[in-house]
Every structure is written in structure tokens, then in C-alpha cells.
Write a sequence for this structure.
């Protein structure tokens, strides 16, 4: 999360300055105005993040949280906890980071601020829950909730990856086989046709098309490679812009077959994250700001920030979510009931469990439905090649048979 330096006038008209982290300058301005201040200036501070030595997978983080919460609950000091955990973790990256955090905590820095210096490992959700645990004196509970959240996220990702593994392997194998046939086998057949006296203008349309593809792959392969690289760079540059990211996230939600699955995953993550934050004592405005930064979908993130702005003005969370059109009626109703009953966090947990079960069902049906589609796809590609190769041979055999019959 970026840091901003700001100046404002307090209730007595005195200009004061400070620095704070926020998603955007507008979010920080809203936060200051909520406290009754008049904002004078906000500018981003170019902070140099700590050097990060690699990535830490979610399994290592969830195990770290479980062990950390157990030790804190047993009354072990933070410094001692970090020392023990850094020596026990299997991740060299996490081990090195924990040792640096241990040194900062020993020097008087808070745990949440020390972790915030490593955003590639401890995201806004992680830091926010640790901060809430420190303020409320319930750090072990915050760590337990973090561990449960990370474990459910790991399980959700595992199910999605396992469901997608088979289709990806089949598609890669099919493309590899077709590429091998087009690049190495078919040119030999075309040379054979030419040796037999078949001219290119005598080839059927399917064979001509296949010959053009084969010649391009053999003689102009670098154009295809260059085109792929240019496309990848252009696509990455496009989705790095706000417009491109919004468009790509909208396509992910609206795409046939995979769109509903992505939508369910996003809703489950929204509910699980917001419920975890609220149950840890994070205020609703801060929780929504954190969820908007971790939901991984620009369209849903904008809807969450709109809901946050409406709540700041005294509205409820349900109507702006419903107005966005991105949250199903069941989710809106459950959130509204939870808000009215004062049990929003438990309602969100139920929503998360429901949509995670929906994701399981969608993955099971998708896996069973995609297998015959892939088989037909692979068979169609191979069948096209076989027919395109056999047509000239059948014409040649027919001509030879006709010629021998005339004699």
C-alpha cells in the first residue's frame, strides 16, 4: 500500500502534517475529513521497501500463524516467538524475513509495522489483522483467524488448480502433437506429393490450407514467436492500466463457462475476508478498504469502495452492493440481515461457506463437462490433418486406377 505525506487544518485552524498509508489519495482525504480535518495537500511518498528474497507460499504462512498463535497464547514473548519460528520454518525466505522482523521488534517497533515493510509476504489483510490484535490485546485470536483464513484460501486455490490441471495438460499435449505433425511430419508428405507429380494447384482447399500453415511454421516460425512476445508485452501493459484492468476483470466475470466460476470465487473471497476482519474488531470502513485492495477484481473492488463511501454518509452496506449488480441477491439479503441483527461477521462466514461449496460443485461439473469437449477438440484437429493428407493420396490412387483401367 502506498504511503502519503499530508497537511491539514485542525478545528483550531492550525496546519499540521503527517504521513499515512492508503489505497489512493482520495481514500486518505476521505479518512481525514471523517475526523473533521480540512485537507490542505496530499502527495505520495516514495518509500523504499525492504528487499524481499523471494515468495512465501500460503501453506507456510498459515502454519506460521498457527504456531505463532499457540506460542503467544502460552505467554511466550514476541521476540522469543519470532526467534523460535524463524529457526523452525521450512521456507528460507520466511526465515530471513522473520529474523529481520525480530530485530525490529527488539528495537521497539510494533509487530504490525515491522510486517508492513514486507508487502510481498504480509499483505494489507495480514497487517490489518495483526494491528487489530495488538490494539485489542487479542493477538493470539487474530493469528488464529488469520491461520483459518489462509487455510481456507489454500484449500480453495488447491481445488481450482486441481480441476484445471487435466484440461491444461490435455490442451498442451494436443498443441504439442499438432505442432510436431505440422512442423516435422507433414513437410515430408508434401515433398512426397510433389515427387509423385501432384502440383500445388491440384491440392484440395483443406490440403492447401494445411500446407500454408506448415510452411509458415517451418520457414516463418520467428514471426509467430515475435507475434506472441509482442502480444504478451502489449497485454501486460494494457492490464497495468486502470482501464485495461477493469476491462480484463469484467471479461473474467462475464466469460462463458469460466465467468460464473470466477464470480463465485470472488464473492467467496470477499465474504471470507470481510468476515475475518470484522470478527477481529477491525472497523467497517477500514475493513472494506482492506477488502477492496485484496479482492483481486477491479470491478468488485470499485463496488466495495462505493459501498464504503455510502456507509460513511450514513447508508447501509446492502443497497450499494445491490446497486452494483455484481453481488447476488442472496448475498445482499444475508449482509443486510447481518447488519440489522449486529451479526454481520457471522453472516459473512455463512456466505463464504455457501459460495465455497458452490465453487466445489461448479468445479466438479466443469471437470466432467470439459473432458468430452477436449476429446472432440483433439479428435477434430487430428482428423482435419488426416483428411487433408489423405485427400491428395485418394485422388492420386483414383487417377492411377482410372489410367490402368483404360489400358
Amino acid at each position: 500500500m502506498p504511503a502519503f505525506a499530508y497537511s491539514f487544518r485542525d478545528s483550531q485552524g492550525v496546519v499540521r502534517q503527517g504521513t499515512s498509508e492508503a489505497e489512493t489519495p482520495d481514500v486518505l482525504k476521505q479518512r481525514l475529513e471523517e475526523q473533521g480535518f480540512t485537507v490542505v495537500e496530499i502527495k505520495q511518498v516514495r518509500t523504499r521497501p525492504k528487499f524481499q528474497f523471494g515468495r512465501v507460499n500460503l501453506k507456510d504462512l498459515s502454519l506460521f500463524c498457527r504456531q505463532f498463535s499457540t506460542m503467544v497464547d502460552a505467554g511466550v514473548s514476541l521476540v522469543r516467538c519470532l526467534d523460535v519460528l524463524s529457526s523452525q520454518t521450512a521456507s528460507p525466505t520466511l526465515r530471513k524475513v522473520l529474523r529481520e522482523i525480530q530485530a525490529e521488534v527488539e528495537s521497539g517497533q510494533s509487530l504490525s509495522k515491522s510486517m508492513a515493510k514486507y508487502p510481498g509476504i504480509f499483505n494489507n489483510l495480514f497487517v490489518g489483522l495483526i494491528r487489530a490484535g495488538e490494539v485489542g490485546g487479542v493477538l493470539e485470536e487474530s493469528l488464529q483467524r488469520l491461520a483459518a483464513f489462509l487455510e481456507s484460501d489454500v484449500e480453495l486455490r488447491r481445488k481450482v488448480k486441481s480441476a484445471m490441471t487435466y484440461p491444461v495438460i490435455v490442451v498442451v499435449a494436443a498443441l504439442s502433437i499438432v505442432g510436431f505433425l505440422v512442423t516435422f511430419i507433414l513437410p515430408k508428405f508434401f515433398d512426397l506429393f510433389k515427387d509423385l507429380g501432384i502440383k500445388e494447384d491440384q491440392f484440395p482447399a483443406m490440403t492447401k490450407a494445411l500446407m500454408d500453415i506448415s510452411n509458415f511454421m517451418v520457414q516463418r516460425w520467428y514471426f509467430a514467436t515475435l507475434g506472441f512476445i509482442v502480444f504478451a508485452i502489449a497485454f501486460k501493459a494494457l492490464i497495468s492500466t486502470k482501464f485495461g484492468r477493469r476491462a480484463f476483470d469484467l471479461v473474467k466475470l462475464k466469460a462463458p463457462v469460466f465467468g460464473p466460476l470466477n464470480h463465485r470465487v470472488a464473492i467467496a473471497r470477499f465474504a471470507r475476508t470481510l468476515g475475518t476482519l470484522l470478527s477481529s474488531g477491525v472497523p467497517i470502513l477500514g475493513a472494506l478498504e482492506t477488502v477492496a485492495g485484496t479482492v483481486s477484481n477491479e470491478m468488485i473492488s470499485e463496488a466495495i469502495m462505493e459501498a464504503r463511501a455510502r456507509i460513511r454518509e450514513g447508508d447501509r452496506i446492502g443497497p450499494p452492493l445491490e446497486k452494483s449488480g455484481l453481488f447476488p441477491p442472496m448475498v445482499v439479503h444475508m449482509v443486510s440481515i447481518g447488519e440489522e441483527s449486529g451479526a454481520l461477521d457471522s453472516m459473512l462466514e455463512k456466505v463464504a461457506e455457501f459460495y465455497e461449496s458452490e465453487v466445489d460443485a461448479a468445479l466438479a461439473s466443469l471437470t466432467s463437462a470439459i473432458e468430452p469437449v477436449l476429446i472432440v477438440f483433439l479428435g477434430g484437429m487430428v482428423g482435419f490433418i488426416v483428411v487433408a493428407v489423405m485427400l491428395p493420396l485418394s485422388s492420386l490412387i483414383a487417377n492411377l486406377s482410372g489410367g490402368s483401367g483404360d489400358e
Summary: The beta strands are 3-9, 15-21, 38-45. Residues 344-406 form the longest helix (63 residues).
